[in-house]
Write a structure and sequence with these properties.
Helix content: 40-55%
Number of domains: 1
Shape: globular
CATH superfamily: Spore Coat Polysaccharide Biosynthesis Protein SpsA, Chain A
Largest sheet: 8 strands, mixed
Structural class: alpha/beta
Mean pLDDT: 84
Oligomer: single chain
Strand content: 5-15%
Number of strands: 8
CATH architecture: Alpha-Beta Complex
Strand order of the largest sheet: 1-4-3-2-5-7-6-8
Low-confidence stretches: 1-5, 7-27, 31-63
Length: about 300
C-alpha cells in the first residue's frame, strides 16, 4: 500500500510539473543518444596517451560552436504521413548552411506504427504518455539539443522544405522567433470553411486582447532560438499552446516575424474539433487576458 501511494504521488507531481513549467520532463526515448565526451570522467579513447587529450578538447570546443537545429514534430496516430514528413526535411541543404540536424518525433500515445516508422527514418522518438498538444511540445523542447528549434505537425500540412529560407531570414535579420501564416496564401479546399473562419475569429480576438500583429495566431509551424524558451511563461498543455507561445514571444519583447507558407491538405484522420477546440482557445485567451490584468 505504501508503494502504491508513493507511485500515485509521483504521477501527480509529474503531471503538475508538465502543466506549469518549461523545465525538463522525464520521458521515454527510443533511440540511442550520442556519446557525450564532455561529461566522461575518463578519456573517451583509453588507448591513447594523456597528451592526446589536447586534440580531444579541441574537438569538444569545436563541437560547442557548431550550429544545430532540432525539428520537433508531435504525433498521434500519424503512420500514413510521418515518414513523408521526415523525408521532406532538407537535411543536406541545412548542412550546407552549417547546421547539424536533429529530428525529434514526440509520440503522444499512438496506437498505430507511428513511432516505429519514425524510428526507421532515423528520427529520435520520445514517448510523452501525458496527452496534450502542449505537453508533447514541452517534452520535445526540454529534450532538444539544437540552438534553433523548428516545429510542425506530423500530417504533411506544413512545408518543412521552407526551413532553409526561413532560417536564412532569421540569420539575416537577427530574429528570435518566426511564426508562419497559413491563411494569406491558402488554396481553396485545403481547409474547411468552418475551420478557416474559426481561425480568422481567433486571430481577431488575439489581436484585440493582446495586440498580437500576426495574421495567423493558430499556425503550428514556428522557428525560434532555443535560448528564449526558458523566458516564456507558456502554461497551456493543450491546443492553446500555439497561440500562447506567440503571445509570450511578442509580449516579452523578442524580435519576431511572420512569414507566409503554402499550407496543404492533411494526410490521415482529422483530429481537430473546430467547435470544441475553438471554444477552448477563446476561453484560454480570455483567462490569460484577465490574469495579465491582475499582475
Amino acid at each position: 500500500m505504501f508503494f502504491l501511494k508513493e507511485g500515485v504521488k509521483k504521477m501527480v507531481q509529474l503531471e503538475n510539473a508538465i502543466m506549469s513549467t518549461n523545465t525538463a520532463i522525464p520521458v521515454e526515448t527510443e533511440t540511442s543518444t550520442e556519446l557525450d565526451f564532455e561529461n566522461l570522467s575518463s578519456p573517451p579513447f583509453p588507448g591513447r596517451r594523456n597528451g592526446d587529450r589536447r586534440n580531444t578538447n579541441r574537438r569538444i570546443f569545436d563541437r560547442k560552436n557548431i550550429k544545430k537545429i532540432t525539428v520537433v514534430i508531435p504525433a498521434l496516430n500519424e503512420e500514413q504521413a510521418i515518414g513523408l514528413v521526415i523525408k521532406e526535411i532538407p537535411i543536406n541543404e541545412l548542412k550546407k548552411m552549417g547546421y547539424e540536424v536533429e529530428i525529434m518525433v514526440i509520440d503522444n500515445g499512438s496506437k498505430d506504427k507511428t513511432r516505429y516508422i519514425a524510428n526507421s527514418h532515423r528520427a529520435k522518438v520520445i514517448v510523452q504518455p501525458i496527452k496534450g498538444y502542449g505537453n508533447a511540445y514541452k517534452a520535445g523542447f526540454a529534450n532538444a539539443t539544437g540552438n534553433i528549434i523548428a516545429t510542425g505537425d506530423a500530417d504533411l500540412t506544413y512545408p518543412f522544405n521552407d526551413l532553409p529560407k526561413i532560417i536564412k531570414k532569421m540569420e539575416d535579420e537577427n530574429l528570435d522567433f518566426i511564426t508562419t501564416d497559413r491563411l494569406t496564401n491558402l488554396q481553396p479546399g485545403v481547409m474547411s470553411r468552418t475551420h478557416y473562419f474559426g481561425n480568422r475569429l481567433l486571430q481577431l480576438i488575439t489581436k484585440i486582447l493582446f495586440g498580437l500583429p500576426c495574421k495567423d495566431s493558430q499556425s503550428g509551424m514556428w522557428i525560434f532560438k532555443r535560448s528564449i524558451w526558458d523566458k516564456l511563461n507558456v502554461k497551456s498543455s493543450g491546443m492553446p499552446f500555439s497561440q500562447e507561445l506567440k503571445i509570450e514571444a511578442y509580449k516579452n519583447g523578442f524580435k519576431c516575424a511572420e512569414v507566409p507558407i503554402a499550407y496543404r491538405t492533411r494526410v490521415g484522420e482529422v483530429k481537430l474539433s473546430t467547435l470544441k477546440d475553438g471554444l477552448g482557445n477563446i476561453l484560454h485567451l480570455i483567462k490569460k487576458r484577465i490574469f495579465n490584468w491582475w499582475i
